[in-house]
Amino acid sequence: MNMMKMMQEAKRLQERLQRELGELEVSASAGGGVVEATMNGHKRLLRLRIDSSAIGSDQEMLQDLIVAAVNQAGRKVDDAAAQRLGGLAGGLGLPPL
User: Fold this and answer.
1) What would the pLDDT profile of 47-76 be if each residue is shown by its tens digit?
2) Are the CB atoms for 62 and 35 separated by under 8 Å?
3) Local structure of 20: helix, strand or coil
4) Are 82 and 26 in contact (CB under 8 A)?
5) Which of 39, 2, 25, 15 is nearest to 88 (CA)?
6) What CATH architecture does domain 25-87 belong to?
7) Under a CB-based contact definition with an 8 Å cutoff, are residues 82 and 71 in contact?
8) pLDDT tens for residues 1-51?
9) Rounded CA gap, 44 and 54, in Å?
10) Domain range summary for the chain, segments of one domain joined by +
């Protein structure tokens, strides 16, 4: 494969990955499901659900649960993106990252 074709293919694959990440949604919870965060593949928080049992409880604990759920969702996005990137890079004939 010549260099120009390889660059065009890489650009096409990058655009496809960006589109797929925009469509990806992952959710993660903390506190046994008391807080659930959903974000897309671009790590934009789409939804945050807080169980009514947590409302009015310890404010500091609730804040910690929110941070934990959002961070876990971000890690899930990273894992999903790495899997997709690995699969797409195979189309270029490149070694895995």
Assistant:
1) 999 998 888 778 899 999 999 999 999 999
2) yes
3) helix
4) no
5) 15
6) 2-Layer Sandwich (3.30)
7) no
8) 588 888 888 888 888 888 888 889 999 999 999 999 999 988 999 999 999
9) 24
10) 25-87
